[in-house]
Amino acid sequence: MRSRRPKIKSDYSRSAIAKRWVFLLLPTRLSVFLFRTFIDNNRERNTLEAAKFLVDTANIYPSKLFRLQPKFLRFSLALGDSNLPKVYIKFLSRSLLTTRKDSLKRRTIRDSVLATTKLLDHSITSAHSWKMISLALSGFGFVRAGTIARDNCLKRACEEVYAGVATNRTLHLAIKGLLEARRFDEAKRLYQALSSLNNTEKLVYENYISLMRQTKSFITKSDESATSLAEVIFKELIHSRRIAIVAPGKISSNSGVSIDSCDTVVRIKYYGKSSLQPTVFGGSRCDITSHNSDVFEAAVNNFSESEKIFGEVPDLKLVVSKRKGIKTKLNVPIKEMSSWPPTFLTTGTSGTLMIWNVLIEHPQKIFLAGFNFYTDRGGYNLQLLNLFKSSSTPGFIPGELHWKNGNLSQTSLARNHIAHNLRSDFLFVKNLYELSGLIDGTPEVLEILNLTADEYDMRLEEMLGDW
pLDDT tens track of the chain, all 467 residues? Predict the structure, then answer.
């Protein structure tokens, strides 16, 4: 059958959610048949769509509809061709229902899910199916079990590559997984042998290895990309300079002087002076800020919000956005992100994307602050949380925050693992920290970066707690 272009939107609009619920509520075999017949018959792309259905499945966990989870989960796994044993799917479904009814059993069940997942043969399904399984397990808080699945994903991706049956997506998946595992020579042999690899993709992989090995062959972007005023400003602010990149997490050490003494201060999701912690902790300068495109677009279309967010800082010189074509009436140049780091399984989070875009302009050193790598349920510093109390704040999602203790809900945090594989973000920065010599940070950041990857997984599970 001829492959069709997917009709379901890639975002999470209400119309897209409504369409997905139709498939979720139909009998699994029928809904999978209808999806592949009328939406998209490409099995590999189906695993990408299945992740969106997983988000809907995770969303009903804290709701009164939680009993629908087994049905929803079966559809997502079937759409992604998981080929998991039926007994395992039943076990996982039962585990989710049990933890929902009695949260105190979650810790015991986490260990049981981990042990049972270890027994699965990595050859039972494809690399992309293992990817979806990993996102599903992590998205329900079974982080260590999700790591078993992601390890199986890399094994299967490499097997498919060497057997000559890997698709282009699987080839890139294998390369990224090998890079993350510091198997640089294997990764290089793969991407150098790829005739379908374009120069931009090759440059990303070459730069990653050069960064980790600190070789002189490190290349910036092509000359053509540095023609706009925003690109020129960004290069001038970053090249050969000491850069502070400040995420919106809590900073408990007196790091304000260290931040403000850097040549350039970059703040992730800057929402004006009122969002900053006391200067002694987080400093006060902001030369560059970066935002998710949807939040930024909402802000620039509302002048009062734009003025509050971008007009409170006299030293703001540049705004970085993920999307092209966003304009503002404010006299602040806007630069689009020009490159994406080769993180395994999913794209990087906002902080990781900004770190990579700074790195490709040859900074002298990067000082990280406010990065908790999602190990803290608070997520954001208290000042920013208080700002988010206002429903008029762009990007605020009602119900995402528990105001009694200032924390994000555990289900919201776990659901983030479906869109972003947090272990990939952690290992990306940890590899830079240990190999490149370019990364420094506050005591809070360095304490996390000195964890092993398995210790980091355990930290995430302990942070999520009993739900």
Answer: 333 433 434 455 678 888 889 999 999 999 999 999 999 888 888 988 999 899 989 989 988 999 999 999 999 999 999 999 999 999 999 999 999 999 999 999 999 999 999 999 999 999 999 999 999 999 999 999 999 999 999 999 999 999 999 998 999 999 999 999 999 999 999 988 877 777 788 889 999 999 998 765 555 554 444 578 899 999 999 999 999 999 989 999 999 999 999 999 999 988 778 778 899 999 999 999 988 766 566 665 665 556 656 656 678 899 898 876 666 656 788 898 888 999 999 999 999 999 999 998 999 999 999 999 999 877 677 777 666 555 455 444 444 444 344 456 788 888 888 988 999 999 999 999 999 999 999 999 999 999 999 999 999 999 998 87
Full-model pTM: 0.89
Domain 223-464 has CATH 3.90.1480: yes
Cβ(248)–Cβ(277) under 8 Å? no
